[in-house]
Write a structure and sequence with these properties.
Elements: E1 3-11, H1 36-49, E2 51-54, E3 60-64, E4 71-74, H2 76-85, H3 87-103, E5 110-113, H4 125-143, E6 150-151, H5 159-167, E7 172-175, E8 180-185, E9 192-193, E10 204-208, E11 216-221, H6 224-232, H7 239-249, E12 256-262, H8 273-284, E13 290-292, H9 295-301, E14 306-310, H10 349-369, H11 378-384, H12 386-390, H13 396-403, H14 410-428, H15 433-436, H16 443-461, H17 468-475, H18 488-496, H19 503-514, E15 522-525, E16 528-540, E17 543-554, E18 560-571, E19 574-581, H20 585-599, H21 604-615, E20 618-620, H22 627-665, H23 672-692, H24 703-714, H25 722-741, H26 745-760, H27 768-777, H28 786-794
Parallel strand pairs: 1-4, 1-12, 1-13, 4-5, 5-6, 7-11, 10-14
Antiparallel strand pairs: 2-3, 8-9, 8-14, 10-11, 15-16, 16-17, 17-18, 18-19, 19-20
Helix pairs in contact: 1-3, 2-3, 4-11, 7-8, 10-14, 10-17, 14-16, 16-18, 20-21, 22-23, 23-24, 25-26, 25-27, 26-28
């Protein structure tokens, strides 16, 4: 028998959405990506779904779905984001689990995770159960089956956590070897202490429920030193080095060698770690005497022969893999931190958790009081609410019919759902990353404060006493290590308050975006369904005026809002909007008539005063629009500015082109001022010419663009632009997909001609999607010859005599 090998990857990102809009804001530290989800998606999640096995010349020989070979979990909040923003990788993750069911004896390699990565031993009992139930239900919703196990965030665990997993029918759990206390053979043998991390990771252990019922769950303790070498010590330098580490700890036939690391190790933390993993598992593991498996299959084939108990941790709080002080990292200044500077402390952690605990407990009171009035059992209702979350607001009627105390009227339905949304925000604000890093002013700590801010708003909407003042009073004791950042209350006011998206602000966004014909007449945006009514818009000179009604419905609660508005666009970035709740049709139409009466004849100042009187008092500007609309508007303004710059540079370049030619031919080094004008002008013309032909798949249509690119080359100018590379990436991919559907010579020649055009113009479009399309179209073991072989080479692929490739 070969040595059994299990590699577990914990793939997770904290929820990053603005809780008022559901959108991820730009995170500058993730540049050039929009945010960290997007960046790590490009560096890890997608590369592992389409991992390249390359030859010695860097050509792609195979494309492998790494997820099909490893044990893994994905955080539900990350999968929710990937479903929309990374659908290709999301699809491959689901496919990998289905494939693993067949490969590993009916045991899928995917396992669930605690919903939003809260530290479960620090949760109260209600929250711990909901975190587990929501994680399992999210898993079932996405993968179409029940999970055999649930990843404990940070492997944070105590007896209560393991008992909760058993209550939910989990078969096994994965822990660090340093969390084991003692072991003994089954049948009441003598206990042996393994408290120093000496537990044998080559087998499963039985853990018995503390209630004496005889119920049990299997525990796998991953190999700690081996996992550390992968994550932190360069074991991913090469596939040989990678497998050498496993071989070093291997042993008798049937022995288990297992590791667990953050999934982001494979590609994000270790560049090309995805390729090392693919080559090791696809090409070398079997030859080195390893049999790939997963924990579920191994457990079935090798039931526990020993029993284990785990460390209780300080005060019975539990232990984790990433904190040497139990779970202190998530509630006190224990000394564990990531990042920061010498002399920094984490004394802010305790008041941060105390403030959130205060808010959670305040929200629990009205929720518990809803028992019998709105819900049969509010906590059962909260556990079931995940179905509405996953349905993005759909299924509310069915849900309330199941969990409601009786048939609720319209206002009671809104209140019941608002209470559940309040509970959801209270769960999200315990995401572990809020405490993991070095300072309360960090990105992750601010994110959990955003959920707290949303919870406070919901309590006010429910007519409850606002806990804001007391919350901020506690939070003010959390002092940043950077004096300029102040304390937690300062950070909340500075970072969280501007993120708030009230219904009024969302209506203002719609009024402003309507000036530029964005969003449409109705639709769903940022947790609201909206519709426009009695809209009128006209432009006079440089001023555009719009009036109308806006009706909003909250997707989460069904609460209805109606506003009347007037909005002005004066040019550039100057937008002005005023609105108020609808005051009845008669009042609205009178205000509209009076406004339009003065539009053509009155001065701008008079118009501003009038719409403030008729539609105010609340005033809004461009800064109140949703980030994506604000970005589009700013890009339009920027584009106009660039156009003006182009006119100036183009005149300078065209007027001096003959002189520049003469100077270059004479060997004169052109001054930077002239080369800058040439480069800007040629790059701008090149980009515009490419975009002008963007709909064409005919390389001949880009003759003018080719001439501009060659002219730039003669002058030593770079004209490559991201937008141009993206355009040709899409064209090449579309042409290769056309080849996949119709592999005729003319179709292949079209793809080759486009690739040759890119080479002549010295462009470097990404070929990943085109490579994947080629491999998907290639029949197994079919010889690749002629034009198809030329296309494979042009795409950077290996051209075997018989295809051994696969996707």
């Amino acid at each position: 028998m070969a040595t059994s090998l299990v590699i577990h990857g914990h793939f997770y990102q904290p929820p990053r959405e603005n809780p008022w809009t559901g959108m991820v804001e730009r995170e500058p530290s993730a540049a050039p990506a929009h945010d960290w989800n997007e960046r790590i998606q490009g560096e890890c999640y997608r590369p592992n779904a389409f991992a390249r096995v390359v030859d010695g010349h860097g050509r792609v020989a195979r494309i492998v779905n790494n997820y099909a070979h490893i044990n893994f979990n994905f955080g539900p909040t990350l999968l929710s984001w990937m479903e929309e923003h990374g659908p290709d990788a999301y699809r491959r993750i689901l496919e990998a689990d289905r494939e693993s069911l067949g490969r590993f004896g009916g045991h899928g390699s995917a396992i669930a995770q605690g919903y939003n990565h809260a530290i479960l031993p620090l949760c109260n009992e209600h929250d711990r159960i909901t975190q587990i139930v929501w994680g399992l239900e999210d898993f079932r919703h996405r993968l179409g089956r029940s999970a055999e196990a649930l990843w404990l965030p940070e492997t944070a665990c105590n007896d209560a956590c393991l008992g909760a997993l058993m209550d939910q029918g989990m078969k096994y759990a994965i822990l660090s070897p340093y969390q084991a206390e003692r072991v003994r053979p089954l049948g009441n043998g003598d206990w042996t202490s393994v408290a120093e991390g000496s537990v044998d990771p080559g087998q499963a252990y039985r853990y018995l429920h503390r209630d004496g019922s005889g119920r049990s769950i299997a525990l796998f303790f991953y190999d700690g030193p081996l996992s550390r070498s992968i994550a932190f010590e360069g074991a991913l330098y090469s596939s040989q080095t990678f497998l050498d580490r496993f071989a070093h700890v291997g042993g008798r036939d049937g022995r288990l060698v297992s590791v667990a690391t953050d999934g982001e190790t494979y590609g994000h933390h270790s560049h090309f770690g995805d390729r090392t993993l693919a080559y090791a598992l696809e090409m070398e593991a079997a030859q080195r005497g390893f049999a790939l498996t997963n924990y579920g299959q191994y457990l079935e084939q090798h039931p526990p022969t020993h029993e284990a108990e785990i460390k209780p941790g300080p005060n019975g709080e539990g232990t984790s893999w990433s904190c040497a002080h139990g779970v202190g990292r998530w509630y006190r200044d224990c000394g564990c931190s990531t990042g920061g500077q010498e002399g920094w402390n984490q004394a802010w952690r305790a008041p941060l958790r105390q403030a959130l605990d205060f808010l959670r407990d305040a929200a629990a009171v009205p929720f518990e009081e809803s028992r019998g009035r709105l819900f049969k059992d509010p906590w059962d209702a909260r556990n079931g609410y995940i179905s509405v979350v996953l349905g993005k607001g759909q299924g509310r009627d069915e849900f309330l019919g199941r969990f409601g105390a009786r048939e609720l009227d319209a206002e009671e339905r809104v209140r019941a759902l608002a209470l559940l949304e309040l509970q959801r925000q209270c769960l999200l604000m315990y995401t572990s990353c809020g405490w993991f890093f070095s300072d309360i002013a960090g990105l992750e700590a601010v994110q959990v404060l955003k959920y707290a801010g949303r919870a406070i708003d919901l309590m006010v909407e429910l007519g409850l006493a606002s806990p804001r003042e007391r919350f901020l009073e506690i939070l003010s004791q959390a002092v940043s290590n950077e004096p300029s950042k102040g304390n937690g209350a300062d950070i909340f006011r500075r970072e969280v308050d501007p993120m708030r998206m009230t219904p009024e602000r969302f209506a203002a966004h719609l009024a402003i975006s309507g000036l530029l014909d964005e969003e449409g007449e109705s639709g769903d945006v940022s947790g609201f369904h909206f519709s426009r009514h009695e809209t009128r818009k006209e432009q006079l000179g440089r001023v555009t005026l719009a009036t109308g009604q806006l009706k909003l419905e909250s997707s989460a609660t069904g609460r209805l809002y109606a506003f009347m508005h007037a909005a002005l666009y004066i040019g550039g970035v100057d937008f002005y909007c005023v609105l108020r709740p609808m005051a009845g049709p008669k009042r609205f139409r009178a205000a509209v008539a009076k406004t339009w009466e003065h539009f053509a004849s009155g001065s701008l100042l008079t118009l501003l005063r009038l719409i403030q009187e008729e539609f105010g008092p609340e005033e809004f500007g461009l800064q109140h629009a949703l980030p994506r609309s604000r970005q589009r508007i700013l890009e339009q303004v920027f584009g106009s500015m660039i156009g003006h710059y182009y006119e100036q540079y183009a005149r300078l370049y065209d007027d001096n082109r003959r002189i520049m030619d003469h100077l270059q031919q004479s060997g004169f080094q052109l001054p930077r001022e002239l080369t800058a004008a040439a480069e800007f002008t040629l790059a701008y013309r090149f980009e515009q010419e490419v975009l002008r032909q963007q709909g064409s798949m005919d390389p001949q249509a880009y003759g003018k663009a080719r001439e501009l690119a060659l002219e730039a080359q003669r002058r030593g100018c770079a004209v490559e632009r991201p937008s141009v590379n993206r355009a040709f990436e899409e064209k090449v991919t579309a042409l290769v997909r056309r080849v996949a559907e119709d592999p005729q010579d003319d179709t292949v020649r079209g793809a080759l001609a486009m690739l040759e055009l890119c080479r002549e113009m010295r462009l470097a479009p990404r070929l990943d999607l085109a490579q994947e399309a080629f491999f998907e179209a290639l029949p197994p073991r079919k010889a690749v010859t002629g034009l198809m072989a030329q296309l494979a080479l042009a795409l950077g692929l290996v051209v075997p005599a018989t295809s051994e490739t696969g996707v």
